[in-house]
Amino acid sequence: MKKIIAGVMLLALFVSCKDKKSKIDPFAPITNLVDSALHRKDTVAVPVETGPVPTEADESFNDFIYAYASDDQFQHQRTVFPLPYYNGEVPSKIEERFWKHDDLFTRQPYYTLLFDKEEDMDIVGDTSLKSVQVEWIYMKTQMVKKYYFQRKKGCWMLEAINLRPINKSEDEHFVEFFERFATDSLFQCERIRQPLVFVTNDPDDDFSILETTLELNQWFAFKPALPTDRLSNINYGQSNRDNSATKILALKGIGNGFSNVLYFQRRGGQWELYKFEDTGI
Question: One Pfam family for this entry, by name (predicted)?
Answer without folding.
Answer: DUF4348
